[in-house]
């Protein structure tokens, strides 16, 4: 599932660091450089072989983009990645989160011993001592802590439901097919490779029956759709189609995160972060060299996800 070719992936076991919030004495260090902390967590996951941030089955109501259980608002950008990582590592079944105060206001409580997962919020701070005619601002990052509904007890009725597992055999999904068609992307089914060709401006996929499940087919299609959004005249993101260079590998990371977001929109929970050794090593290299890389990738993935929803006139499912 690339700009040029498709390779098979292997399953990996859980590994990596705890997704829970740091202790009080660590908080100051985290606030000093949240980007480095997040990057270190993801590098450790990758070096431990964990790149499957989603499950291998399809569920009903409890799957999807992480969102706040009280406001119903979905999280965005890097926070989607952070909360998915936490849910994957801890085995949470819900995509809903809330703060300690929100739980308390509902008459609920965090289960004893449970620790929060931190996300990142941005606050615009006005620059001082500038000679500019208009005020200038810069973004300052601050952590916030949330708890998955699996970590909270005594919730009011209606806040949580048990996930309903659906069959893992290939069955065409009319809603997902309608979405793909509505994007206007040209999709051909032939051969045994999945790729997006910037030269032809078309997506090529194997026949549907060649995929192991419905979810794996749509995850692959969504991955290539994210590449498609990067073409000139759309989001103008594609810089290189040379296999293995940094720009190519970074685009693969954008496509993997973006396809995960689109898959979650339609309730497909599938392992779309693939363990291609060439990509994995490249991702680790890029993240080690640039602590802002994962933030850039998540931002571009979110932009691709939102662009696809917009042009297909697909409403958010939150």
UniProtKB/TrEMBL annotation:
The UniProt GO MF terms for this protein read: single-stranded DNA binding
* Location of the region described as Disordered in the Swiss-Prot/TrEMBL record: 1-33
Name by which UniProt lists this protein: Antirestriction protein ArdC
Residues forming the Polyvalent protein metallopeptidase domain are: 176-300
* Domain (N-terminal): residue spans on this chain: 32-134
């Amino acid at each position: 599932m690339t700009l040029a070719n498709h390779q098979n992936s292997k399953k990996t076991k859980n590994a990596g660091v705890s997704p829970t919030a740091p202790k009080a004495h660590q908080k100051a260090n985290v606030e000093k450089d949240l980007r480095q902390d997040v990057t270190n967590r993801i590098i450790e996951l990758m070096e431990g072989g964990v790149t499957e941030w989603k499950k291998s089955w399809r569920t009903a109501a409890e799957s999807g983009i992480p969102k706040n259980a009280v406001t119903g608002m979905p999280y965005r950008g890097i926070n989607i990645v952070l909360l998915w990582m936490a849910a994957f590592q801890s085995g949470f079944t819900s995509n809903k989160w809330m703060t300690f105060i929100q739980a308390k206001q509902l008459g609920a409580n965090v289960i004893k011993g449970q620790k929060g997962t931190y996300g990142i919020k941005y606050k615009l701070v006005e620059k001082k001592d500038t000679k500019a005619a208009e005020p200038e601002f810069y973004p300052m990052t601050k952590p916030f802590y949330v708890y998955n509904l699996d970590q909270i007890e005594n919730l009011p009725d209606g806040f949580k439901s048990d996930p309903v597992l659906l069959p893992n055999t290939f069955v065409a999904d009319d809603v997902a097919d309608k979405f793909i068609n509505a994007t206007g992307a040209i999709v051909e089914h032939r051969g045994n490779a999945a790729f997006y060709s910037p030269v032809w401006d078309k997506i090529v996929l194997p026949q549907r029956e060649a995929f192991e499940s419905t979810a794996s087919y749509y995850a692959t299609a969504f991955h290539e759709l994210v590449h498609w959004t990067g073409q000139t005249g759309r989001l103008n993101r594609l810089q290189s189609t040379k296999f293995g260079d940094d720009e190519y590998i970074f685009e693969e990371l954008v496509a993997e995160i973006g396809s995960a977001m689109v898959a979650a929109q339609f309730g497909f929970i599938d392992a779309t972060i693939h363990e291609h050794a060439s990509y994995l090593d490249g991702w680790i290299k890029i993240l080690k060299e640039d602590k802002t890389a994962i933030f850039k990738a998540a931002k571009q993935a979110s932009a691709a996800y939102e662009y696809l929803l917009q042009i297909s006139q697909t409403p958010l499912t939150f």
